[in-house]
């Protein structure tokens, strides 16, 4: 598979000009690398992926209504990871990372929150 067709987000902090004062570069690079790892696992082709595809074809894709694919499982794990990191790292610093899946897997969108709103609970921000 061509390396240009894989999903890979850039992890250099200097590109995100507003962040260096709020997040250290090592933390941000580890965060993005973990997201890239989840997407690489989601796109990986293995025995289970092959069998899921065969089973879906045999059942006219109705089996996909009853089971989660490997891709869906990894996207869900990535979404949970981003939520955990938002709660643990980014929200206390006045930032919120939007899941790249919500933006077509093109960008990591980072919201800079007003200081008074950065300490709100996760329930309110999960709807945002």
Automatic annotation (TrEMBL):
Main location as per UniProt: endoplasmic reticulum
Q: Which residues form the Golgin subfamily A member 7/ERF4 domain?
A: 19-109
Q: Where in the cell is it found?
A: Endoplasmic reticulum membrane
Alphabetical GO biological process terms? protein targeting to membrane
Does the keyword Endoplasmic reticulum feature in the UniProt annotation?
yes
Membrane topology value: Peripheral membrane protein
Q: What InterPro entries does its record include?
A: Golgin_A_7/ERF4 (IPR019383), Ras_palmitoyltransferase (IPR051371)
Gene Ontology CC, one term: palmitoyltransferase complex
Q: Which UniProt keywords apply?
A: Endoplasmic reticulum, Membrane
Q: What Pfam families does this protein's entry cite?
A: Erf4
- What family is this protein classified in? Belongs to the ERF4 family.
Q: What subunit structure does UniProt give?
A: Interacts with ERF2.
State what protein this is by name.
Answer: Ras modification protein ERF4
């Amino acid at each position: 598979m061509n390396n240009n067709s894989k999903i890979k987000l850039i992890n250099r902090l200097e590109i995100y000009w507003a962040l260096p004062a709020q997040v250290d570069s090592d933390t941000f690079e580890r965060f993005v690398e973990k997201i890239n790892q989840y997407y690489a696992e989601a796109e990986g082709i293995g025995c289970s992926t092959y069998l899921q595809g065969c089973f879906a074809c045999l059942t006219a894709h109705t089996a996909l209504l009853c089971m989660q694919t490997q891709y869906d499982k990894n996207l869900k794990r990535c979404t949970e990871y981003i939520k955990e990191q938002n709660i643990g790292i980014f929200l206390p610093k006045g930032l919120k990372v939007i899941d790249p899946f919500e933006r077509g897997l093109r960008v990591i969108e980072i919201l800079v929150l007003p200081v008074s709103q950065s300490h709100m609970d996760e329930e309110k921000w999960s709807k945002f």
